[in-house]
Amino acid sequence: MTIGSRLSRAGLAGFGLLALGLASGAPAQAQDVTGTWLRDSGASRVRFAKCGEAMCGTLAWLKDPNGPAKVGQRIFYDMKPSGDGKWTGSAFNPEDGKTYSGTMTLAGDKLTTSGCVLGGLICRSVVWNRAN
């Protein structure tokens, strides 16, 4: 078998996998984060919606309304697509009143948000489940 025939077979196999992916009916567009999400601890819900060219997340419900966070407070903002199912922007932490560089990663009905300091050396992540 020559190198050319091996490459041709590999190319055909790759084309076949691509064709299967296109025929599967899977959407070609990025996943949609719009909607309401419940924090894995059950302590809060955040609603994501478009804000200009980005996505923003606002607290929609709190289990304990007496804490530092307030319903209606924007905690994720300027979240712009940075890959398939990924966004980068800013995250506000009501507990310490600070804003951090933020990321979001969507995988099915699970959204992981992270806020980082020191160029990403220290990060805190939270998992959210789609509520609607």
TrEMBL record:
Extent of the signal sequence: 1-30
Pfam family, one: DUF2147
Segments crossing the lipid bilayer: none
Gene3D superfamilies: 2.40.128.520
Record has Cell inner membrane as a keyword: no
Domain DUF2147 intervals: 35-130
Keywords: Signal
Domain of life: Bacteria
Name of the protein: DUF2147 domain-containing protein
UniProt lineage: Bacteria, Pseudomonadati, Pseudomonadota, Alphaproteobacteria, Hyphomicrobiales
